[in-house]
Request: fold
Amino acid sequence: MPVAQLTSLDYVIMAIYFAVVLGIGWALRRRMRTSTDFLVSGRSLPPWVTGLAFLSANLGAQEVIGMGASGAKYGMATSHFYWIGAIPAMVFVGIFMMPFYYGSRARSVPEYLKLRFDEKTRTLNAVSFAAMTIFSSGVSMYAMGKLLNLLLGWDFGTSVLVSAAIVLAYVLLGGLTSAIYNEVLQFFMIVFGFAPLVWLGLRSVGGWDGLTAKLAEAAVAKGLPAGAYSHAWQGMGSATTNPIGVEWFGLVMGLGFVLSFGYWCTDFLVVQRAMAADSMTAARRTPLIAAVPKMLFPFLVILPGMIALVLSAGAGDGQGIIPAKLAAGGGPLLDSAGRIVLDYDLATPMMLVKLFPSGMLGLGLTALIASFMSGMAGNVTAFNTVWTYDIYQTHMRRGASDAHYLWMGRAATVGGIALSVAAAYVAGAFNNIMDFLQLIFAFVNAPLFATFAMGMFWRRSTGHGAFTGLVSGMAAAALHHGFTLASGSVPGVKGGFFGLLHTYPSELAQTFWTAIASFTTCLAVTVLVSVVTRPRPEEELRGLVYSLTPRPTDNTLRWIDRPATLAIGVLAMTVLLNFIFA
Amino acid sequence: MSEAGGLDLRYPIGGLFLVLGLILTGYGVLTAGNTAMYARATSVNINLWWGVAMLVFGAFMWGMAVRAGRRKA
Reply:
């Protein structure tokens, strides 16, 4: 029995949105003359467009659903994923790293590794990245199909196939430009779809004061300090006194440094948006422009989860807004202590359904579906570029005509979407999508930032050093994960498969420390191997390494337009937000 | 501002929000006074108010695009 009934007006709103999405692809179809038009937007977009797309490409299922789920599970501490786990890295990539990505004329992040190091490092990165995009895209589609089935009673297969077909149509027509334009459109849909949800939600719990008062009751009931759910930093001194179960050092190093810099500074999915900008200044401003709305997003995506937590409290487990997770037999799932396990991923969607009347419900659901679809489109447009330039052109067919690579880019789009659909059927079985994605990022991305930091800021680092560093970093991640476990988890995919040496207080703590182990190993091995191998001549590294590249001069710009001004403003606001919600 | 393929993105954004805003505002006016329908939304006629907000935003985006187009011509 579906939870919500849509009226025909809700369907009309959905239909109008998708007509505009497809219309944008249609309007751009004549622009796609070369493979660079199709795969990298021909470096032609203004910074406000690439900036909002930079933000929006990351705004798939894991963000909207996962952050709502984390908000219901961890409360205000979830904002660390933004204020610690995103903003500093976004500022760093804009100010310090973009000059090399954009200035080197590389068409992708793996291609930068080829220019700076060698072919094998690039191939390792390209292949692991390509696999990860397909996987993420599949997880996103799986979550969407399951959610639409539960909320609206739509058939899982039909939801997945129809949304895949729409994404396929607009990416095939307009390439990366079309994906980016639709990401910007989706950004505004999310803002306009979720802002009223937060407003009505706050009204229903008695405003911000009502919310914090009720969260204090919920925190005390769980044996935490009263402010644990409504403050970001309270109880962070020890893993046992805060809801996320991580102490401040693991949080700042693991999430704030290793995972966040690994993701925002090296993940081609987001960096590709900045590389499509129309000038160096625009490319550098892209992540900084994205950081402004990013720091305000906790209020849009985390608050609905926190409000759902309050509205569920006292209603009996599984009887409030957040329903119980269902076991295979159909009854509520119980944990080892016999308590009902709540399905936190449903916190935000249930809020939407419970608070919005017909009309607004159509808008909210469209925003939600749009975020799933643009997550898929973002992954597919990153995948087709890496596949075409870094795998196909490098290893399968060199020196073909550009028309051939344009054809290959289109074929890779079709193939990528088909593989995502297949992955959607494989994915599942996790309580919180975010924890799982963080784990995957920990294996693949955590060592990456060490490699890029060495490549960009240490001219002596070599290709052999980078490659062995990356491989040992990934191995260290797997080993650490295999030898540790979060308390309450059973050995298996959650860790402990090689034996048990240490138990962490929470899954997040384990994930953050996996990342720290991986990063440190990669850094150490890269340095050791680089020292004993032959460096590349300095003239080959100009434009690729910090000390051998002229600084970008912003002196011709008005001070207000300079990337550094924007960066300082963004950082100051982030510090202020941390103090207000400490 | 030069835009890919001569398509200023502010036109589709503005157009979409104008149309959706118009629909929600109209629906809000038609359902005004329907207390049962808006009880779940803390008794706020959210369709009407949010529809108006979307209309304003849509008009702003469209206006920006028109202004940029004129300056180029």
Q: What stands out?
A: Chain B touches chain A at residues 1-5, 7, 9, 12-13, 15-17, 19-20, 23-24, 27-28, 31, 37-38, 40-42, 44, 46-47, 50, 53-54, 57 (CB under 8 Å). Chain B has a mean pLDDT of 86.
